[in-house]
Here is the input.
Amino acid sequence: MGRRTAEEAQVLLRRRLCDPNFIFSVFSDSPDSNYSKLKFIVSSSVTEACNNSMLLLGPRGCGKIAVLDLVLEDLLKEYPEMISVIKLNGLLHCDDNCAVKEIARQLCIEHELMFSKMASYDDNSQFMIAMLRECGLAHKTVVFILDEFDLFAQGKQRLLYSLLDAMQSVSSQAVVIGVSCRLDADQLLEKRVRSRFSHRKLLFLPPPKDDLQRLLKHILLLPTDSSLPHDYVTEFNSRISNILADKRFIEVTDKLSDSDSTFSNFLRFLFSAVSYIDLRSGFMTLDNFKSALSTIQRQPKLDCLKDCSILELYMMVCMKRLEVKEQGSYNFNSVMKEYKSIHDSFQTSDNYSRTVCIRAFEHLLDRQLIEFADRGHNQSIEFRSVKLLISSSELHQGLKSNRSCPVSYLGFGSSNSSKTNGILKDTKYVVVETKSVQHYED
Here is the structure.
């Protein structure tokens, strides 16, 4: 097996990862998938000559547009002369005048007509209604795609009203599909618009573990009928199957899902893992996926924590302990009380002056690891409420990875409440016992 074969396999995998149609086609055979539901609704509108409107809702990166494009591509192959697609984006066409003008422009291109840039809103609106009527008489369905649908729901909503009102006509034949990351997008509609809306909604959620396993095999297993050597494909697929069944790999995917479980993040992770393939051996290893995870999950907050002093880490642990004790707000003084209670309880050898602690507190503000929780600009920094901007896991990783931490650690004691005991036991907060004092220069 040569380097050229490995490069060819790598290119094939990258091409798959960059092709949304290939990725989401694995779910097209399931009758319960959003692909099947969306295709049924749109195809019914085409074949039965009826009007429809629906919303595709879900977090960004969950494949709403990719599934919609796949459905439209399949339907255009099945009914090439019966579908016309008009695409708008709320980021570009949220203004009603601009949106109607863009609709008129795309309709003119679709039907090979002359487009007038000087036409008014009323002219373009009348043209749109007339074209919907003509398309209906010709048994041609116009599909309107409104990406960032919630932005169209701002203002007077004249575009939405014009579209949905025109669809009330018997002669028109259209489908309006709104795409939004806001789950309450339909609640933004005015009463007159909502009364004309079909209230069909498809919810796109991050994929469950079973779907992820199917997707992994669909993407990473090489085809046996490709130009690649058969022995290489067999060995490559065998190793991939072993990796997918490995508990350590499942732990990697679980960590990835904990931070972001969307399709887009998962595909970025796979693309990074494929890029780490050793071209000399030509096979993927578990280390490729671990390296990809560390690349994907790089966080600026953790980089800031690596350069924090012991005192700054100490103060953040005090803040986290106050949060664990369900103290809703805290300031510098309450943090220092917690600091003193730890110092007195465990007789730690480090004892910083109040002035040094204030400078460390200011450094945390500058690093944006904490921020003020109020707007009391006239108050002294010691009395203003603050909140911690990092999670428990990030703080735990920062304590472990900080270069200035000596070997010896002193564990914190637990609080009286059972809830606090559990959290402190899980996170294992530690602070360094050291006699060195961090100097803060003006």
Notes: The longest helix spans residues 121-137.
